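Hi everyone, sorry if this is the wrong subforum. Our group has a chain we'd like a structural model of before ordering constructs, and none of us has done structure prediction before. Sequence below.
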Amino acid sequence: MSFDIVGDVHGHADSLKALLRSLDYEERNGVWRHGEDRRVIFVGDLIDRGPAQLETVAIVRRMIEADTARIVIGNHEFNAVAFATLDPGNPGRHFRQRKGNNVLHHSVFLDAVGGADTPLHRELIDFFRAMPLWLDLPELRVVHACWSSQAMAALQGHVDNEGRLTDAGFMVALSQGTPAYEACETLLKGPEMALPAGIWYRDAQGSKRKRCRTRWWDATANTLRSACTEEDIAGQLPDDPLPPDTEISLDDSKPLFFGHYWMQGVPSLTSNKLTCLDFSIAKGGVLCAYRFDGESELQTPRLRWVS
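Answer:
Right subforum, don't worry. Here is the predicted structure as tokens:
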């Protein structure tokens, strides 16, 4: 089967519709469809930041219900579930506390649904909860941030046979400190490393960070300096070996697609076996897709994008 894999949308419905048109999809009876046997796969992060939260989710939801698309959950959908779910171990508190930056980062979506705990909010949270953490198809693999067999193994017993967290699995995976929580952190946010004392940076929302995402997809990035994804501070880091707990065993037996990493500039392949499709539409970049037709090695001309 042929697929068009689409990067992080973040509420940019107009760009999504333009991208679908460029890929020869058209809207018929309220659903975007392709005239041939093609389907879209979304890498997650439909929500937060952009101007058209509800329209974006509605487009994707209708496509999934009509079997013209599939999706994996992103960290923003996962965080939305945590924000909406009460923690039974802390009466009156949600797994993601409703204060400070947690509210600020989620405010565009909350405004769109009319506030937390409205009927529409609960309906969309149920939609997010039904999204799988990964797709392992005969032709390809898709995950939001990092493909980690070790993390997937840690979720055994908490997911169904399609990679979706069960109701009980969500309660464990939302509980900080559990192996399931750490596994979801890896799959949805990617492995991180602690920065040396005195070194920190501010993320896109202005929050102070003392941990850095790593270039897990690059087998040559095996030191603190070469593995750090934050270019502004990478030069301050020593060439010390990476901590063992950040290492990911790469499996290139089939093509892998992911998002999450705010790539910049003209879209390009990460490698001929795997590629990030997040090219920062929510930061003035482009919405990117890869047109997949079963090839075992990825090809640059198959990348498509719209601003």
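For your construct planning: Residues 2-190+254-306 form a domain with the Purple Acid Phosphatase; chain A, domain 2 fold (CATH 3.60.21.10). The chain has ten helices and 16 strands.
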